[in-house]
Amino acid sequence: MKFNQVTVLAAATILIPLGGTIAHFTAAPKAAVAQSEQLLLAQASETPTEGKGEKRRGWDRSKLFEQLDLSDAQKTEIQNIRQQARENGPGREEARAAREKMRELFASDASSDELRTQYQDSQSLRQELREQRFETKLKIREVLTPEQRTKLAELKPERRRHRGGKGPQSRTF
């Protein structure tokens, strides 16, 4: 009887960490697939942090412009596309407020129907943001030459390493 208990404990100490490791490596390919589905110009509609100019999250947009050898006209056009995207469509602040309201509803006595409605509103805003980003990426992509698109694809892993692999799919522009 005692032998069985020791065997079970030994097996559990081996299998539990092994299960966590397997779960981690099973989830990793899913994340890689999600990242690879992003276009070369991921998260194009993101705005630079106020007061930091072109620098944002550890990389310098003007340096990227130089690496891609963008003409002044291309730089201006990309900046105009990004500005237009910021001015139109749903804002990140609205989506953040919707998520916060969802947290508050979960902590309150709100009904399941109220939670479902808020969840749908939040998801709708997030989808609008994704669609807006996608359209912005397409517009910026049209500004780049085929060579610049290739160069951007080559630079993407470097930027991701520079950022420490954090954040949504290594934002560009």
TrEMBL record:
Give the UniProt entry's GO cellular component terms: outer membrane-bounded periplasmic space
Q: Where is the composition biased (Basic and acidic residues)?
A: 89-101, 145-157
Q: Where is this region: Disordered?
A: 75-101, 106-125, 145-173
Instruction: Spell out the Gene3D superfamilies in the cross-references.
Output: 1.20.120.1490
Give the residue spans that cross the bilayer. Answer: none
Task: Name the InterPro entries on file.
Answer: Cpx_auxiliary_protein, LTXXQ
Q: Which Pfam families match?
A: LTXXQ (PF07813)
Q: Example GO molecular function term? A: unfolded protein binding
Does the keyword field hold Zinc? no
Indicate where this protein resides in the cell: Periplasm
Sorted alphabetically, which keywords does the UniProt record give?
Periplasm, Signal
Report the principal subcellular site. periplasm
What PANTHER family does the record point to?
Answer: PERIPLASMIC CHAPERONE SPY
- Recorded family membership: Belongs to the CpxP/Spy family.
- Supply the name of the protein: P pilus assembly/Cpx signaling pathway, periplasmic inhibitor/zinc-resistance associated protein
